[in-house]
């Protein structure tokens, strides 16, 4: 609409005035905020922007390729893809405590990003997809001693060791405004309206020690779940179940149970499905998904993902459970 058009024109002018002819780097995570920030800044300054996309190996199925296709090919952005899977897996080997895992992933992420950014010696600016709720939250965290249940690692926040000037064009926007802006800038609505995905990614959806094999199994199970949610319409609302849930994903349980396949016995891993409805993610209800949908997802996962022979559905509310299992 025209209001958004005006907003974009104004924001573009502001970025140009701020940055001038200098170079900008931005850490692209594939999430909504950094994606919209990238699209907006690219609209303003084109090739003066370089994005660094750190792939920690804990992304969803084909996510890295999707990010590269969309920003590299469609938008024609300068983008550096760092596949740091082995490095992250190496650091995570033998670590099973959830908070320790979060800290390792957060620290490693910063290190990889900074090493890569350090090579871009012309850069004077660090762009971040900080949005208004982040600004309030960090102000609150400084003034209050927050009681942390989980130390949220968000790939947006980076310590200032690169001594770059900060460019944060989304600082005044709420999430719904960021989404509208993203669509107006030409990002696909399916990506702009995606469920939230935690910074540590599948690292907190593989219980205990993270292994690449586990991540590969989980990615495939999760993709089947999401595909079926998107393809199943609820007749009462005429919406699909992806849009009717606030967050939905598969969790890898590193325990084996016995199954039967053909004439043989199997002894394989378990996947839990989690789907919740919530306004604010502080409290949440488990989603009452149709049994036929759950049955279809379970059948498909067990038939298509060798290595998983049992699927369970999580019916815990928050509180007392949290949305993620770690
Ligand atoms: P919980 O599991 O605490 O999650 O009920 C609430 C919301 O926060 C997300 N979450 C995270 N997001 N880094 C993030 O960026 C994290 O470490 C993290 N842990 C949980 C979770 O996906 C849910 O939307």
Poorly predicted parts: none
Bound molecules: xanthosine-5'-monophosphate
Count every beta strand, where a strand is a DSSP E run of 2 or more residues.
11
CATH superfamily of the largest domain: HUPs
**What is the molecular shape?**
globular
Provide the β-strand percentage band: 15-25%
Number of helices: 11
**CATH-defined topology of the largest domain:** Rossmann fold
CATH architecture of the largest domain: 3-Layer(aba) Sandwich
Helix and strand string, N-terminal first?
A: HEHEHEHHEHEHHHEEHEEEHE
Q: State the separation between the terminal residues, measured CA to CA.
A: 41 Å
Q: What does the main sheet amount to?
A: 5 strands, parallel
Task: Indicate the radius of gyration in whole angstroms.
Answer: 21 Å
Count of structural domains:
2
The CATH C-level class name of the largest domain = Alpha Beta
**Category from helices, strands and their pairing:** alpha/beta
Catalytic activity: XMP + L-glutamine + ATP + H2O = GMP + L-glutamate + AMP + diphosphate + 2 H(+)
Organism: Parvibium lacunae
Subunit structure: Homodimer.
GO cellular component, one term: cytosol
């Amino acid at each position: 609409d025209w209001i958004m058009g005006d907003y974009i024109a104004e924001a573009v002018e502001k970025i140009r005035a701020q940055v001038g002819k200098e170079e900008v780097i931005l850490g692209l995570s594939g999430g909504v905020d950094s994606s919209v920030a990238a699209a907006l800044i690219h609209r303003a300054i084109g090739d003066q922007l370089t994005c660094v996309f750190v792939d920690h190996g804990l992304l969803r199925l084909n996510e890295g390729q999707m990010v590269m296709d969309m920003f590299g090919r469609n938008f024609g952005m300068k983008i550096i893809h760092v596949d740091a899977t082995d490095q992250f897996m190496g650091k995570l080997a033998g670590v099973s405590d959830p908070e320790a895992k979060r800290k390792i992933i957060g620290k490693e992420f910063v290190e990889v990003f900074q090493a890569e950014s350090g090579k871009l010696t012309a850069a004077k600016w660090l762009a971040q997809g900080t949005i208004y709720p982040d600004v309030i939250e960090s102000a609150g965290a400084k003034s209050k001693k927050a009681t942390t249940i989980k130390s949220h690692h968000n790939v947006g926040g980076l310590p200032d060791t690169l001594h770059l000037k900060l460019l944060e064009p989304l600082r005044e926007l709420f999430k719904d405004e960021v989404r509208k802006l993203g669509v107006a800038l030409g990002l696909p609505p399916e990506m702009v309206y995606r469920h939230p995905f935690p910074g540590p990614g599948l690292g907190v959806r593989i219980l205990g020690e993270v292994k690449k094999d586990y991540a590969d199994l989980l990615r495939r199970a999760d993709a089947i779940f999401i595909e079926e949610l998107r393809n199943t319409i609820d007749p009462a609302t005429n919406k699909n179940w992806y849009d009717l849930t606030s967050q939905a994903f598969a969790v890898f349980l590193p325990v084996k149970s016995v199954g039967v396949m053909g004439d043989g016995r199997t002894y394989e891993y378990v996947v839990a499905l989690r789907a919740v409805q919530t306004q604010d993610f502080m409290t949440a209800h488990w989603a009452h998904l149709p049994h036929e949908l759950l049955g279809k997802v379970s059948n498909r996962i067990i038939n298509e993902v060798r290595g998983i022979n049992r699927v369970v559905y999580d019916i815990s509310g928050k509180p007392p459970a949290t949305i993620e299992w770690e």
